[in-house]
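Figure 3 (text version): structure tokens given as input.
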């Protein structure tokens, strides 16, 4: 039986599950996905970016368990421009909910990254600047990035996960997905880097096509 691994670009306003819970959209709105897959990790409804779906428990474990220290990279828009002291705290680790986060790689970007527009615009405060960070973690605690930036005084306004290990959003737009090849899935299960293959066919629902109009 072939392992199924899907890379999905989760849009804003979508919960990381197939069953409906409240008014948010669900993964079921962007299929059809194979019935056997389930999310390996989560993004909250307000966050965007890379979500991995799989039917293989080994791959889910490798991606989600902290002991494997899979790097996760995010683009983070924050309110105001962080000071050097705040950036240093994020890099060294901050205490959230009584536990210190692991050291992180944090870069203050010089320019705003090119990203798809969000269907619900970020609410800005007049005369308050914003800044973009690239932040890489090796753990995945609940709403960790948002809690980290808030802890140093710079609330997160927009959050996009761009990479998990060697898996990226390359070639995808919000609401679109692609299935890894059998070889890519094998490499992932073995803990090896997965090269981007732009020739792999992408699945897209009517809902995801409408999202980009």
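Below: residues designed for each position.
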């Amino acid at each position: 039986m072939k392992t199924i691994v899907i890379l999905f670009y989760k849009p804003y306003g979508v919960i990381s599950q197939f069953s409906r819970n409240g008014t948010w959209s669900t993964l079921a709105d962007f299929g059809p996905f194979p019935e056997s897959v389930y999310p390996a990790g989560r993004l909250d409804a307000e966050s965007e970016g890379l979500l991995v779906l799989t039917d293989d428990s080994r791959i889910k474990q490798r991606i989600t368990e902290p002991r494997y220290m899979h790097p996760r990279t995010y683009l983070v828009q924050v309110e105001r421009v962080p000071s050097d002291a705040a950036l240093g705290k994020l890099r060294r680790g901050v205490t959230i909910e009584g536990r210190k986060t692991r050291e992180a790689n944090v870069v203050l970007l010089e320019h705003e990254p090119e990203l798809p527009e969000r269907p619900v615009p970020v609410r800005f405060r007049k005369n308050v600047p914003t800044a973009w960070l690239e932040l890489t973690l090796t753990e995945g605690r609940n709403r960790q990035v948002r809690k980290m930036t808030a802890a140093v005084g710079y609330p997160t306004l927009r959050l996009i996960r761009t990479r998990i290990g060697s898996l990226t959003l390359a070639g995808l737009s919000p609401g679109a997905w692609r299935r890894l090849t059998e070889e890519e899935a094998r490499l992932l299960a073995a803990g090896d880097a997965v090269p981007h293959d732009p020739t792999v066919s992408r699945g897209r629902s009517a809902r995801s096509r409408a999202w980009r109009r």
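The first strand starts at residue 5 and ends at 10.
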